[in-house]
Amino acid sequence: MVQNYLAQATGMEGEYYLYVPRADRTPALRAGTLSPYQFGIPPGWKEDPVANAISGNYCQPRCDEPTTEVKFSYPAEGSCQVIIAPLVKLTRQKRPSIDEVGPLDGIIASVGPYITGDFVEPEDVIAQEELVVDGHK
Q1: What gap in Å lies between CA 4 and CA 79, rounded to an integer?
Q2: What is the SS3 string spanning 47-85?
Q3: Which residues contact 97 (CB under 8 A, 6 or more apart)?
């Protein structure tokens, strides 16, 4: 369980534990294709293994398919995955910005099949929020 090895997060409403991967922790961070990130995870959740076939370990830094960084789960509440996708796979443009890919609804529809294995219908999305952190969406 995450509360056994992660520090308790501060500044978050509720009880969360802060996941901050080391630079050598995941293939994308090691390759420098992803900026460092962090997020809070509720108690009771556990980190799940990521299969090499979906981790990007074999193709970083030039993966042309979405890859899974980390996975967490708690059977009673669900699962969480950090998935990275080359923006060029979501549009026909070379080196597009996230704004050029489309609105949040369209981005969710584009990456949904990589997450769920099927299309994501608008009624499947419970909530969505666009954030800008340190100038990044």
Answers
A1: 18
A2: EECCCHHHHCCCCCCCCCCCEEEEEEEECCCEEEEEEEC
A3: 87
Model confidence, pTM: 0.75
CA atoms within 13 A on the CB side of 40: 12
Query: What are the C-alpha distances in Å from 65 to residues 25, 99, 130?
Result: 20, 20, 23
The SS3 assignment for 30 reads: helix
Q: Is 27 helix (H, G, I), strand (E, B) or coil?
A: helix
* 95 neighbors 123 (Cβ within 8 angstroms): no
CA atoms of 74 and 114, how far apart (whole Å):
20
2-57, pLDDT tens digit by residue? Answer: 999 999 998 888 899 999 998 888 888 888 888 888 999 999 999 999 988 888 88
The full 3-state SS of 84-129, as one line of letters, equals: ECCHHHCCCCCCCCHHHHCCHHHHHHHHHHHHHCCCCCHHHCCCCC
Identify whether the C-beta of residue 36 lies closer than 8 Å to the C-beta of residue 29.
yes
Mean pLDDT of the chain: 86
Report which of 123, 79, 86 is spatially closest to residue 105, judged by C-alpha positions.
123
